[in-house]
Design brief:
Number of strands: 5
Number of domains: 1
CATH class: Alpha Beta
Oligomer: single chain
Number of helices: 7
CATH architecture: 3-Layer(aba) Sandwich
Strand order of the largest sheet: 3-2-1-4-5
CATH topology: Rossmann fold
CATH superfamily: HUPs
């Protein structure tokens, strides 16, 4: 029997392809976190669509709901008083879409669950190129987090965070997804909208550019 791996699935393109990668080697459990973000309902739909695509049973699905990130604010994804920026191609500033320490909260939930269900891996679709300046999308961050897991869990726990896409370009991720038959048509990347993707936010821009460079038409609808 295959070992068990938890995949953090936001519903976006990168987490969709990460699920496809993990599925080639592991039995999957899927985790989704609602954190009162702007597109929460649409991301949750994408998550369920991906979970159904991979026939994940209910006992290996966890939906976690946290509202502290909206209360904390500081991000255009959680604070409605802040505008979601259009793509800032040459900016050296951390984008306003950065949610403070978000991935740490998500990974903590995943490791807690993994200890209980006996998972050996936690997969997350972090991409360094996708997130210029995002400190929780850097390889050094995941090296540090894996050290934390070792000292912060039971001696019998052997969980490691895997980031299979972290050094990939976005177009490479699209190509990998196509090769693995990842259901990219079910994924959702837009930071602003829940009906048709805006095509202008940082996430939409990188997604459209990636599909264009890969020579493939993006299957989701845009304004």
């Amino acid at each position: 029997m295959k070992e068990l791996a938890i995949v953090l699935v936001s519903g976006g393109m990168d987490s969709c392809v990460t699920t496809a990668i993990a599925n080639t080697q592991y039995q999957l459990a899927l985790l989704h976190v609602n954190y009162d973000q702007r597109t929460e309902s649409r991301e949750l739909k994408a998550f369920w669509d991906i979970a159904l695509f991979y026939h994940i049973p209910e006992e290996r699905i966890l939906i976690s709901n946290i509202d502290c990130l909206r209360k904390i604010g500081g991000s255009s994804l959680t604070d409605s008083s802040m505008d979601v920026q259009d793509a800032q191609l040459h900016s050296k500033e951390i984008p306003t879409s950065y949610v403070p320490f978000r991935n740490t909260l998500f990974l903590t939930i995943a490791v807690s669950w993994g200890e209980v269900i006996g998972a050996k891996k936690v997969f997350i679709g972090a991409v360094e190129q996708d997130s210029p300046g995002y400190p929780d999308c850097m390889p050094i961050y995941y090296d540090a987090f894996n050290k934390l897991i070792k000292v912060g869990t039971k001696p019998s726990t052997c969980i490691e965070v895997e980031t299979p896409l972290i050094s990939k370009s976005k177009s490479e991720i699209v190509k990998m997804g196509m090769t693995l038959n990842a259901p990219l048509h079910l994924s959702w990347s837009c930071y602003k909208n829940t009906d048709k993707a805006c095509g202008a936010c940082h996430s939409c821009f990188l997604r459209l550019k990636a599909f264009s460079e890969a020579g493939v038409k993006d299957p989701i609808a845009y304004i």
